Amino acid sequence: MVEAIIVGAGHRSLCYAQYAHQHPEQFKITGVVDPIPDRRAAVQREFGLDDSMLFRDVDELCTKPKLADAIINGTMDELHVPTSLPLLEKGYHILLEKPVAISLKELNQLRAAQEKAGKVVMICHVLRYAPFYAEIKKRILDGEIGRMISLSTAEYVSYHHFATCFVRGKWGNSVDCRTSMLMAKCCHDMDLVSWMTCGSKPVRVDSFGGLRWFCRENAPADSGNHCLRDCPLVDSCDFSSKRMYLDHPERWASYVWPEFDYRKELNTPENRLAKLMEPGNPHSCCVWKCNNDQVDRQSVIVDFENGCVATHQLIADTCRADRRIHIVGTEGEIEGFMSQERFVLRKHDLRPGNDYTEETIDVKVTNAEGHGGGDLRLVEDFIARINGEEPSISSTDLCDSVIGNQLVFAADAAMFGKKRIENFDSFCEEQA
Ligand SMILES: NC(=O)c1ccc[n+]([C@@H]2O[C@H](COP(=O)([O-])OP(=O)(O)OC[C@H]3O[C@@H](n4cnc5c(N)ncnc54)[C@H](O)[C@@H]3O)[C@@H](O)[C@H]2O)c1
After folding, report:
1. 57 CB less than 6 Å from ligand 1?
2. Distance 74 CA to ligand 1 centre (A)
3. Which runs of consecutive H residues, i.e. helices, occur in 129-180?
4. Is the preceding peptide bond at 269 cis, omega within 30 degrees of 0?
5. Does ligand 1 have an atom closer than 6 angstroms to the CB of 189?
6. Whose alpha carbon is nearest atom 43 of ligand 1?
7. Residue 15, by phi and psi: left (phi above 0), alpha (psi -120 to 50) or beta?
8. In 3D, which of 94, 280, 302 has the Cα closest to residue 182?
9. Residue ranges per domain, the chain?
10. Which tens digits make up the pLDDT trace of 325-341?
11. Domain 128-210+296-431 CATH superfamily
């Protein structure tokens, strides 16, 4: 039985904590750390916690002797490393949300602390555990496409997700949230890029992108500043808070009305409207007149030591959210869209009348499984690691999870600095 304390009792931590309900014989939530009393109370009710196991912050928890085996750290990005360092020193294993860190310096601090403590730190790069990506990785390791030549991935961020989280929402301004768009959204994809290339080292990195659409100059001529107070387009604009949120209260609700996650009785039409009418609520601000600076498109190119060239495209404002992957090897190729829960494996075929063989591999998961089935498979693997089992092929142990984050720092430096990173290793050393 692994006992865990939640640090940061928000939307992500509670997803992982569901494993305790599904497998009470393996995993138990025994405490919570969160500055918001209502959040602590909600976790206490859900998991039947003792009053003595509720803490305002990590400092308060760390004044006690070690109280559990592990921590689920689902704090916001800039708190990941500062909260994890004292917990490692105290001897906890940590399941840490992505991104690992908000700077290369912090990344190295965490690695050093983990090595010293000798504890398991696993990063929530949940896509590695989604059957879609895990099966692709298995096929690569089995040598099915030969030596990898080219890897291209793309993430399509839907117009409503982008507007809610990366224009209006808590990742809308990179200075305030301390992470770039590429880090906030595509650290998963850059992690997949490094994981799929199976140990080859990045050598050079370049990147282009920018914010072109959600800027003041693109606001419709007659638009107001506040969707619900002064905008004549409230019933027609695709980004209207009324149409996007009030008419679809389930859409991105944890971001638009986070307090109703833990005060469910307050989730009424009147209260939802009242929240959006509160002064300063970003979710009713005109989407072209926010304090946002995150890019809405970015392409990254990575040249690997083994000759493989990888590209990743982040494309915001799409109709359909999805992820795409196309890997070409010396003997075959793999191609698929994650949303379709299947991919194709093609191989050369020179028999008369043929070009290639094509096998479709189905990787279905149920609708209820978050991140294509990755969320709870990750928790299962975390528990296995704590119990001393061998790392799985998806394992997101810290030592195996940093390159993706380093690639994001390098890509952003190249894009913002308009200068290619010619030596990835030197870049990482200089910035650390
Ligand atoms: N793995 C994924 O696919 C994925 C998806 C979305 C978000 N995330 C990441 O998960 C993390 C959490 O995101 P979220 O949407 O769940 O956030 P959230 O705001 O719902 O939860 C964060 C919680 O941390 C608490 N908190 C604030 N300061 C704290 C402190 N000093 N100590 C302890 N708790 C503190 C907040 O009160 C809140 O309850 C972010 O880093 C985000 O980037 C990961």
Report:
1. yes
2. 4
3. 131-141, 159-161, 174-177
4. no
5. no
6. 77
7. alpha
8. 302
9. 2-119, 128-210+296-431, 216-284
10. 999 999 999 999 999 99
11. Dihydrodipicolinate Reductase; domain 2 (3.30.360.10)
DSSP for 355-388, written as a single string: SEEEEEEE----TTSHHHHHHHHHHHHHHHHHTT
Across residues 168-186, what is the average pLDDT?
A: 96
pLDDT in tens, 271-282: 999 999 999 999
Dihedral, 295, 297, 303, 309 alpha carbons, nearest 10: 160
> What digits encode the pLDDT tens for the residues 23-81?
999 999 999 999 999 999 999 999 999 999 999 999 999 999 999 999 999 999 999 99
Query: How much is the pLDDT for 367?
Result: 63
**What tokens does 143 get?**
């040598």
In angstroms, what CA-CA distances link 328 with 129, 138, 195, 298, 395? 22, 15, 15, 22, 24
Mutate to test the pocket of ligand 1, among 11, 12, 38 (most ligand atoms within 8 A of CB): 12
> In the structure, what pLDDT confidence band is assigned to residue 368 with cuts at 50, 70 and 90?
low
Mutate to test the pocket of ligand 1, among 75, 83, 257, 378 (most ligand atoms within 8 A of CB): 75
Q: Is the pLDDT of residue 117 over 80?
A: yes
What value does the mean pLDDT take over residues 136-162?
Answer: 97
- Please tell me if the CB atom of residue 59 comes closer than 6 angstroms to any atom of ligand 1: no
Cα separation of 411 and 420, whole Å?
Answer: 8
CA distances from 34 to 10, 58, 254, 333, 341 (A): 9, 8, 17, 47, 36
| Domain 2-119: assigned CATH number | 3.40.50.720
Rounded mean pLDDT, 352-364? 95
